[in-house]
Amino acid sequence: MPIEHDDAYWIRRCFTLAKKGKGFTSPNPLVGAVIVKDGKVVAEGDHRRYGDDHAEVNAINAALRKNADLVGSTIYVNLEPCFHQGNTPPCVEAIIRHRFQRVVISSIDPNPLVSGKSIHKLRSSGIECTTGILEADSQLLNEKFFKYITTRLPFISLKAAQTQDGFIAKKNGASKWITNKASRRHVHELRGEYDAVMVGAATVLKDDPELTVRSAKGRNPLRIIIDGKLRLPISSKVCRSDAATILYTVKSIEKKKRIEAFEKKGVAVVPLPGKNGRMDPHQIVDDLARHNISSILIEGGQHVFSEFINAALVDKIYLFTANKSFGTGIPTFGDIRIPIIARRQSVKFFQKDILEEYYLTYSSW
């Protein structure tokens, strides 16, 4: 006799499968699918890479390779099956064609091209649909996708590494290395989950980071450098071809030759309106959104942190605290001028380092 599992059990399995695609499916969501018949798993599938078959189709194909009879089966999926023709055919058609009895969906797809249409079509075809199972968890899993598809703005996270006494660097700006290797390895994993990683020119001048994924599996994110005065040395590691790089700077006729030198290195330079080397963070984010960047990880420094928080653009903070103190130095956050509510979501430990994850909401009071 197979063990009877409820719908939530199988949806949790979908979450586990969906996470296999972290860092590879954007701007598509993370999705897992499980086919169950008579209480037994028939097949599983997940969406592994943007442009490839979706989780439902991968699960169906896996079942067909086993010569399984799908008639009367239940398919569990953490996001509503796609309704429209994109890089791949609509998953809803495959489910109907193979005569599933029931579809269990964690959350409705917020994409206007889908948003309830697949559920309506399945029910019209005589297939039972159950929705809303662990819906909040499903939305958390795909928080980047949900933010981008509903607002057309990228989900923005901030990653900071600080000492116990709240400094991200010494007074001279030196900051390598505050956290341990385990924490730094996790940062590489985080980079792989975001479309882009962003830093200010000061961070590049002090640390000369590569901003690539080297210690974990995943794609290299787009590198974004905010350099209003175009101070960045062309010899910087971010100007090498390990990953694509965009440099935002303030418009200036005098910078033409410098811009041409960066472009010869393969760095895309985007001049924006600004004053005294400062640009409006909203203009930067809007430009990135127009180029389908759905998520950004901001890694430094203090000025960039403060500017983007004050612009009410940061959704989440990854705050690493190391088991060391500087006594004095550069504080993690500078002049924060707007009211913020930070809700701690989780706490993790990387040896003696602590990682706290916070979600930000902004208040007008």
Number of helices: 11
Q: Within the largest sheet, what's the order of strands?
A: 11-10-9-8-14-6-15-18-17
How would you name the oligomeric state of the polypeptide chains in this document?
single chain
User: How much strand?
Assistant: 25-35%
Overview of the structural elements:
With 365 residues, the chain is of the alpha/beta class. Helices cover 28% and strands 27% of the residues. The protein is built from eleven helices and 18 strands. It has helices at 7-18, 55-65, 91-97, 117-124, 135-141, 143-151, 181-193, 201-207, 256-264, 281-290, 302-310, and strands at residues 32-37, 40-46, 74-79, 102-107, 128-131, 155-162, 167-169, 196-200, 222-226, 245-250, 268-272, 274-275, 278-279, 295-300, 316-321, 330-331, 340-350, 353-362. The strands form four sheets. The chain has a nine-stranded mixed β-sheet, sandwiched between helices. Strands 2-1-3-4-5 form a five-stranded mixed β-sheet, with helices on both faces. A two-stranded antiparallel ribbon has the order 7-16. The radius of gyration is 23 Å and the shape is elongated.
